[in-house]
Write a structure and sequence with these properties.
heterodimer; A: about 160 residues; alpha+beta; two-stranded antiparallel ribbon; 5 helices; globular; B: about 725 residues; 10 strands; Clathrin_a/b/g-adaptin_app_Ig (chain B); protein transport (chain B); cytoplasmic vesicle (chain B); transport (chain B)
């Protein structure tokens, strides 16, 4: 099970936060800071797996992360998930974002936080992997966006 | 009233803030605007306001006042409203808030909505944060959707069902009929994937379900085979491999079904061998599948040939350039090292090489695995590597590594000298990281290695000369010097190459006194060194110097030190002849191994006769019997060493047992720590304690003793005089 998905930039500013287990708000922010601290001091040539920080559950959980340019994508998972599988999943998610936003960059994530959530919702649901087929995900998201647009001038 | 600003407007504004304070001000301003907009029940822009609230929430600002608004959005007819409303509910609400129950009706309606995307939203929300009550109410709807032909909804329903089962395990039965067709041929990748997840969840939760679903093994094997054999399928494949995620999921389910079951395991042997040998390993996806296959092979009852194949795959992984692969390989080998020890041993040198890896996670795994692989045959070589590792590893590792080395040394030490050398190496290299209990353990080890005492004390003394900062090392060294100081100054050594140590009594005392005053010494260390100095009064001739040092500490601020000094000098002891009734406070603390090691040793020597002085019964009343045994302390004949043995013949234990003693002024008394403070009932054991009495004037020994203990819940206290000391004990 995936416990949390965090996307933050090289300075630790959160770009997307999704917890699949209840944490109080201040705890959430602490976890973000702790995770950033753990992940940012890693060299580029070490493996992508870390023990979870103490706030998120310690050694029972792993942090699996990927660093793309200015962003860290961190998945916190328990032992039921395959580490290598999750690495692939992060790749799929990022490639999906790339397709949805056309050469996605950090600014896209900043200004379209809600849309990123909707995309993520089609990939992971309740902490479990829902769909891994990129084209399928993109298609579903597109159709829903269209539904939104078709409603009266309601722009968020 | 102008329209509330758009989300991206807010974001743009916030990004211009140059300080945290500025940002906070902007946020507060916007929150106020949003609040008044909520108060006005503005339907048009509610979704916009909630979206902004979610953004601010992500940055860490409070957003709870938007919870109810999310519910209103969910109840709206507009898809836009529902979309952001459900998202808000998932981010801001959870079952701890009563508010969440208000969602139940909306979700129920939306589960039956005409638009599949609305159904999808409600399934998603229920599957993320549905409480037990909600799940109970809505399980039926979820079950219905599990049987729909709409694949988009079916896969979401499957994961929602998993959540329902986790929240309300009793409802698992309800989903059983729907599982019948989950693995049918007609189903495509997406449904298969979530179906396998659902089946996995049910099997993990219920042994009955597990047996029931074992019959699916042939079907799962078939699906897996198709995936491997099938040609290029652009929809599902990643880097030329068909739906790797599904393959991994199936392999995992097979693992659960095959574990402990011969028939199932046999049914999957072939496919596992096929996947193991045919999977492309040039890309990560191939490795993920291979890795999962290995784990499955190791967990089920596979043929031994297959197991060896699996471990060799892991061995190959260890040599892979990709660090992630090396990491998972080490993790898996750690899991299998107990069951397939010999097979893993073959890869020992590769594993040991990983100790030098730059990656902290890999190093840790390699260290754990190395300890698991140590045995009697490879102990010398492995220990060399591990000690080298201890030298150079991060501080985070040192404590665990030191403990591991101690354990391994204890189990497999080829010789006592090697053992002590290893222990000393750890103390000098990582002395500040060893755990607290290592000190008494090491002292025990040294005590038991009788033939190594001279060697050990000389080496430790030398180490002290170099460095007094590592407390455990200093403590063990102090204890040794106190115990074996005579061997230190005599310069004898049992080993062929004696250590060149010129230690005069005064130099040794200098060193120990230095520890007492050093800033680097902790209170515990000071206590050790003071005790050592005191013990040396029976071994060295510079007694006056020792007495001077000890009396200085009689008025020491440190209570521990003061206590010990006082015990030693016993200057304020009761004058028996004077007849005061106040018994001096010679409390002793709860046992610490070092001080009583001497006592235990004497105890081990048994009742009597080493010195020819017969033992005596000093006290025998109310079931408590105290015997004294005697030993002359060489080379100081003025010191009588008495060991008390307290036994209890009643049916209840005597707890909080404290023995105190007072002697006449011309004597000096030292009481070491007792072996414990519980005298077990029915003579099942004894409490021992060592008394040292200095009797320079060779007067007749008399003693007044005070006993306190708790028996059957009540405190007991008694005073007694001991006058029947055998003449040989004081003449």
């Amino acid at each position: 099970m995936i416990k949390a998905i965090l996307i933050f930039n090289n300075h630790g500013k959160p770009r997307l936060i999704r917890f699949y287990q209840y944490f109080a708000e201040d705890m959430q922010q602490q976890i973000i800071r702790e995770t950033f601290h753990l992940v940012s001091k890693r060299d580029d040539n070490v493996c992508n797996f870390l023990e979870g920080g103490s706030l998120i559950g310690g050694s029972d959980y792993k942090l699996i992360y990927r660093h793309y340019a200015t962003l860290y994508f961190v998945f916190c998972v328990d032992s039921s998930e395959s580490e290598l599988g999750i690495l692939d999943l992060i790749q799929v998610f990022v490639e999906t974002l790339d397709k949805c936003f056309e050469n996605v960059c950090e600014l896209d994530l900043i200004f379209h936080m809600d849309k990123v959530h909707y995309i993520l919702q089609e990939v992971v649901m309740g902490g479990m992997v829902l769909e891994t087929n990129m084209n399928e995900i993109v298609a579903q998201v597109e159709l829903q966006n269209r539904m939104e647009k078709s409603e009266v001038n309601q722009v968020i | 009233m102008p329209a509330p600003i758009r989300l991206r407007e807010l974001i743009r504004t916030i990004r211009t803030a140059r300080t945290q304070a500025e940002e906070r001000e902007m946020i507060q301003k916007e929150c106020a605007a949003i609040r008044s907009s909520f108060r006005e029940e503005d339907n048009t822009y509610r979704c916009r306001n909630v979206a902004k609230l979610l953004y601010m929430h992500m940055l860490g600002y409070p957003a709870h006042f938007g919870q109810l608004e999310c519910l209103k959005l969910i109840a709206s007819q507009k898809f836009t409203d529902k979309r952001i409303g459900y998202l808000g509910a998932m981010l801001l609400l959870d079952e701890r808030q009563d508010v969440h129950l208000l969602m139940t009706n909306c979700i129920k309606n939306d589960l039956n909505h005409s638009t599949q995307y609305v159904q999808g939203l409600s399934l998603c929300t229920l599957g993320c944060m549905g409480s037990s009550e909600m799940c109970r109410d809505l399980a039926g709807e979820v079950e219905k959707l599990l049987k729909t032909s709409n694949s988009y909804l079916r896969k979401k329903a499957a994961l929602c069902a998993v959540h329902v089962i986790r929240k309300v395990p009793e409802l698992m039965e309800m989903f059983l009929p729907a599982t019948k067709n989950l693995l049918s041929e007609k189903n495509h990748g997406e449904i298969l994937h979530t179906s396998v997840v659902l089946l996995t969840e049910m099997c993990e939760r219920s042994p009955d379900m597990l047996s029931h679903f074992r019959k699916l093994v042939p079907q799962l094997v078939r699906i897996l085979k198709n995936l491997i054999m099938s040609g290029y399928s652009p929809e599902h494949d990643v880097s030329g491999i068909s739906d790797p995620f599904l393959q991994v999921r199936i392999l995992r389910l097979l693992r659960i079904l095959g574990k402990g079951d011969d028939d199932s395991s046999e049914a999957m042997n072939d496919i596992l061998a096929q996947v193991a040998t045919n999977t492309e390993t040039s890309k990560n996806v191939g490795n993920a599948i291979l890795y999962e296959t290995v784990l499955t092979i190791m967990d089920i009852k596979s043929e031994s040939g297959l197991r060896v194949l699996a471990i060799n795959i892991l061995g190959r992984f260890l040599l892979n350039n990709d660090k992630n692969i090396r990491y998972v390989a080490l993790t898996s080998l750690l899991k299998t090292v107990q069951t397939d020890h010999n097979a893993v041993q073959r890869h020992r040198s590769t594993i040991v090489d990983c100790l030098k890896d730059l990656d902290v996670s890999i190093k840790r795994r390699a260290m754990e695995l190395s300890f698991a692989l140590v045995n009697g045959n490879n102990i010398r070589g492995m220990m060399k590597e591990l000690l080298y590792f201890l030298d150079s590893c991060d501080p985070d590792f040192k404590a665990d590594c030191a403990s591991g080395i101690f354990l391994a040394a204890e189990k497999y030490a080829p010789s006592k000298r090697w053992h002590i050398d290893t222990v000393m190496r750890v103390l000098t290299t990582a002395g500040s990281y060893v755990r607290d209990d290592s000190v008494p353990n090491l002292i025990q080890l040294i005590t038991n290695s009788v033939e190594m005492h001279a060697y050990t004390v000389q080496r430790l003394y030398k180490a002290l000369l170099d460095d007094i900062s590592q407390q455990p090392l200093v403590q063990v060294a102090s204890w040794c010097i106190g115990e074996y100081g005579d061997l230190l100054v005599s310069g004898q050594c049992e080993e062929e190459e004696p250590i060149q140590v010129d230690a005069l009594e005064d130099e040794v005392l200098d060193v120990l006194e230095g520890l007492l005053v050093s800033n680097l010494s902790t209170p515990v260390t000071r206590a050790y060194s003071l005790t050592a100095i005191m013990k040396l009064s029976t071994r060295f001739s510079s007694v006056n110097r020792i007495k001077k040092v000890v009396s200085i500490y009689g008025s020491s601020i440190d209570v521990e030190l003061q206590q010990r000094a006082v015990e030693y000098n016993a200057n304020d002891l009761l004058d028996l002849l004077g007849g005061n009734d106040v018994v001096p406070v010679i409390q002793t603390t709860v046992p610490t191994k070092p001080a009583s090691a001497g006592g235990e040793l004497l105890d081990l020597l048994g009742d009597l006769s080493l010195t020819g002085i017969p033992p005596m019964t000093a006290y025998n009343k109310n079931g408590l019997k105290i015997e004294f045994t005697f030993e002359r302390s060489n080379p100081s004949p003025n010191i009588a060493v008495i060991t008390i043995h307290a036994t209890n013949s009643t049916e209840a234990d005597m707890t909080e047992f404290v023995f105190q003693a007072a002697v006449p002024k011309t004597f000096q008394l030292q009481l070491l720590s007792p072996s414990s403070n519980v005298v077990p009932a029915l003579n099942q054991g004894s409490v021992t304690q060592v008394i040292r009495v200095l009797n320079p004037q060779k007067q007749q020994l008399r003693m007044r003793i005070k006993l306190t203990y708790t028996h059957k819940g009540s405190p007991v206290q008694d005073l007694a005089e001991v006058n029947n000391f055998p003449p040989q004990s004081w003449q």
